[in-house]
Structures
1.
Amino acid sequence: MPSRVNYLKKPRLKRPILIAGLPGIAYIGKLAVEYLIHKLHAKKFAELYSEHFPEWVIREEGSAETLKVDFSSCRPDGLKRDLILATASAQASSSTGQYMLSGEILDVAEGQGADTVATMAAYAMPPREFKAKVVGAASDIETAKLLREHGIELMKGGTIVGMNGLLPGLAAARGLHGFCLLGTTMGGLLDVQATEGILRSIGELLGFELDLRELHRHAVVLPKFKLPKFKLPEGVEEEVSYIR
């Protein structure tokens, strides 16, 4: 099946910022975007279907749902720009597919006038070195300065694996601003505490209020949120630079 975008409606957005979060370690990015959709009452406007997703469907109440990227939009109180919130139940299943699907997501965002791409991910740390914090990486000097001004420590090394890293990286090649916020985690199925730190940081960074009181209570019942088991890669206890 070739990739295609199904527009449910054509929104009129003002200089939107793309915020994406896809499944990864401790589901930090996925949970963060799902909570934004829930709390900001974002409305879905498009679905991206792609042949680069894994070869399975999601079973839900007796039906089979094809994997896709969902795009929703909203404008939080206090923000003079719109947000495009993008997430899916899986990342692409191959390196080539991750590049292709990331590019297709950016095509949709650019088509709506986005000039900034933000993602959220995990920074895995071993228990003996763990410290709860949010770190960041930026695709350009201007954005890196913005992160530092808001107290976000910039990464000094390591790699951001997968589409949560590729999206802001590839955005730079298109002349867009890009950054990734990463919450430190020791792994596990779901790290709500790390997600809370990232959400607090992105609200402060972009300048909008976000009520986080419901995050822990609703973490596992948010719409479209699945919890398949996701293990840390072998050896991650010793390799703290593994980020996803």
2.
Amino acid sequence: MGVVPASLGSPTPTPTEPRKTVLVFGGSFDPVHQAHVAVVKHIVARCKVNEVRLIPAGQPWQKACLTATAEQRVQMLRLAFDDALPVPYSIDLQEIDRAKQHIASYTVDTLSNLRSQLGNEVALILLIGADQFHNFATWKNWQHIFNLAHIVVAARPGYSLQHDTLPSEFAALWQQANGSIEDLKQCPFGKTWLETELAWDISATRLREQLQQAGQSKETTSLIPGKVLDYLQQHRIYDETPKHQGSSTN
């Protein structure tokens, strides 16, 4: 797989000892933008995360195509996150590796792989956006995700986080699992949290359109990390019509 498994040699924490906490954040990253970096930094500080795993998608079924190649998206992540976080991070290539073998990726499988690598005592936090929150009950074996990780939702303008807008089974399970920030460190999985203090509204689709139509603009300059923007301009990634088709799923 794409990353080296973390060491599992440390003693099992006692119930009062905060656990090692790993934040899992996936996405297309087409392109990587400031909101990706900002929300990860915010959750790392808020939840006292010890390590970050970034997981670029292989073939996300919700989107008709990806413009940047897997290699380009991985390089953008490196340029955006190197020296940006106070904790170690790694880029997990498992979904990209599955796509190369024409195997669909599901979040439940990705988390199962991480859990097998990291062991049962580490707290896993799956970070998702408000748009994914509303589609969560359509994901494969979504109920089992509660048995693999905590789920933290980052608010986004224009998306309601009210439970009455969710499918009833998912809303009930979400409310039952709702806990505090402290709970995320005290148990390895099964808690939920809505993070409303940081609400970025950046559309990757709009950024791609701007780069395709006008190249570097005031908006792209402010919303894309400088090193990433330089890389995009150098390689002219968004100068042409998207060509990289894909069809994987959550």
3.
Amino acid sequence: MDLYSRKIVGWALDERLHTPLVTAALEMAVERRQPPPGLLHHSDRGSQYTSDVYKQALLRLDALQSMSGKGECWDNAVQESFFATLKTELELYEPKWGRNQTRSEVFEWIEVFYNRQRRHSALSYRSPVAFEEQALNLN
């Protein structure tokens, strides 16, 4: 998630939360955004984010890794809120689709609804895409 606009710029799905999953989401975000050196990347303290493989991926980007202190859950509140909303709105607490259908539903929710239509109070009730477009027009 780009915290400026709340836009989801990189995401991936898998059966387990391991390093290849978060690395794939990072790669998607980098491909889409092509950030300059100095990117600030925040995550929680999960082992997938502290792995050597992930740290090397960030090093290749010349990105600065930021993590919450132990027990400091508020630092990641925006992202955790996103995951709660995704799970609630798609009712993902109980399996109801196969993997391919779940991937399709998540794609549709993130790429069509969340990024382009869902309004955010933090963005003056604009969608992430509309917020970014307005910011570009102001420059």
